[in-house]
Design brief:
By secondary structure, this protein is an alpha/beta fold. The protein contains 14 helices and 14 strands. The longest helix is centred in the last third of the chain and has 19 residues, at 264-282. It binds flavin mononucleotide (FMN). The site of flavin mononucleotide has 23 residues, from loops.
């Protein structure tokens, strides 16, 4: 299958994977603002082996999202092998007119598979998965090989700048012979978690160890952040996570130099469109999951605290429309 990574225009702007956030509705909204590639929420390779239905349902996607990358996490090479094959051969369910065609064999093969070497969450650590894997060079290799050997899709990885004793460059040196097409580097160590400075030097040096597409990730909230990151790292593109929360138009902003600030009216218009899509794709559950997005949309606006009190209780699209329209 085609390596879509090679065809992208540089700099490439990518929606980074976000568990509990980057579902089909959010990915579609980000795509509509110019995200070049969108990543799924991380999906458990183990769950895809033993109980695939729920996880596949989480990975549901729409053609509009392509190129779409499914991210896997886990600690067991055998599980990655089965999961990669399943996704490559059978694909994931596709939304069609808002109906989950789960039972009807209407599937979509994603454009790439990514492996998570960056998640610091305790629950994931306990499975020997995510960031802690970077510390286990042998197992990391086995996992990457298991995925590459079981898919024709381009394989990418997402790492930290350092986990414990293992720095990014040592990690990359250990896998330099493997056919990995893209690398997203969250330029913080596992110890730093999600705050603190980004190690732009190590991202730039990664180029000496990795020949594929390099995406720099961490702390991008504006056009100037993106420019600075690209200049300092000489990466091929950037991955954006927090910066897209309640500001999915950031993909347009980083491309065009526009400000990410928008009028209340413009923000509410996007929030309502996003909610309509979430409701269409996930029904009532979509509305419940929209609550956090709505709080992100109103962040920084006058009266946001009061608005949030109402938005965390919404139960229908009408509730959302009423609250937002009343407050324009
Ligand atoms: C809510 C949330 C969920 C995340 N889930 C994942 C995930 O599933 N897989 C992953 O590799 N990184 C995940 N991340 C990390 C982001 O992809 C990104 O590396 C990190 O937030 C740094 O980028 P930022 O400063 O642009 O947010 C998540 C981040 C957030 C905020």
């Amino acid at each position: 299958m085609q390596n879509f990574w090679k065809k992208l225009i540089k700099p490439t702007y990518v929606l980074a994977p976000m568990a509990g956030v980057a579902d089909s509705a959010f990915r579609q909204v980000c795509k509509s603002y110019g995200a070049d590639v969108v990543y799924s929420e991380m999906a458990s390779a183990t769950a895809l082996v033993y109980n695939p239905k729920k996880t596949l349902q989480m990975l549901v996607s729409d053609k509009k999202e392509q190129p779409y990358v499914v991210q896997l996490f886990g600690g067991e090479p055998k599980h990655f092998a089965v999961a990669a094959k399943l996704i490559t051969v059978k694909g994931v369910p596709r939304n069609s007119n808002g109906i989950l065609r789960f039972a009807q064999n209407d599937t979509l093969i994603p454009n790439g598979i990514d492996i998570n070497f960056g998640c610091p969450v305790k629950k994931v650590q306990k499975q020997g998965a995510g960031a802690v894997l970077m510390n286990d060079l042998k197992k990391s290799r086995e996992i990457i090989k298991a995925v590459i050997n079981n898919t024709e899709l381009p394989v990418s990885i997402k790492t930290r700048s350092r986990v414990g004793q293992v720095g990014l460059l040592e990690f990359l040196d250990n896998i330099k012979d493997l056919d990995i097409k893209a690398l997203m580097i969250h330029g913080r160590s596992m110890k730093q978690g999600f705050s603190g400075s980004i190690d732009t030097r190590i991202i730039r040096e990664a180029r000496n160890y990795f020949g594929g597409i390099i995406l720099a990730n961490g702390g991008i909230y504006s056009y100037s952040d993106s420019i600075e990151m690209l200049e300092k790292t000489e990466a091929d593109g950037v991955g954006i996570a927090h910066g897209a929360l309640g500001r999915p138009w950031i993909f347009k902003a980083v491309r065009t130099g526009q400000s990410v600030n928008r009028s209340k009216k413009a923000i509410f218009k996007v929030a309502i469109k996003h909610a309509e899509l979430a409701c269409k794709l996930k029904g009532e559950q979509g509305i419940i999951e929209m609550r956090k997005h709505l709080c992100w949309y109103v962040r920084g606006l006058p009266g946001a605290a009061g608005l949030r009190q109402d938005l965390v209780k919404v139960e229908s699209l009408d509730d959302i429309r009423d609250i937002l329209r009343k407050n324009i």
